[in-house]
């Protein structure tokens, strides 16, 4: 029996491996931005309702410890997405507001699409949370057009 060479022992990747790698990279990138988008969207919701977002309220709503929120708020501040005021709450910068609004809109479209398929309101709301971060612009536009067609808008 002839000895095998490293080339013959190597696993051969399918021709479309690079396409798959790009898809996995896109999913990893979406997961990284998902947390940021969730935080700024939640902060935006608190500001809209109460005029500011407080660390304690963010922690309670997300079901995480305050030190976890503090670490993320520092990251958001470093990234220029929020500002903090002493003895007050957290506020979105223009860039943070843009991200929050885009995330909220994506969520609304995905949720409306799921409801148009007959998914219950509560399940559609819960399933849309997370899905909104992973759909492409092309898919999101298709969801929006489908909802518009079904609703007759």
Morphology call: globular
- SS elements, strand count: 2
Biggest sheet character: 2 strands, antiparallel
Give the class from helix and strand content and strand pairing. mainly alpha
Supply the number of helical segments.
7
Beta-strand portion reads: under 5%
Q: How far from one another are the termini? A: 72 Å
Describe the structure.
Strand 1 (about 80-85) and strand 2 form a beta hairpin. The protein has seven helices and two strands; from the N terminus they run H-H-H-H-E-E-H-H-H. By secondary structure, it is mainly alpha-helical. The model has no long low-confidence stretch (mean pLDDT about 85). It has a two-stranded antiparallel ribbon with strand order 1-2. Helix 5 (about 95-115) crosses helix 7 (about 135-150).
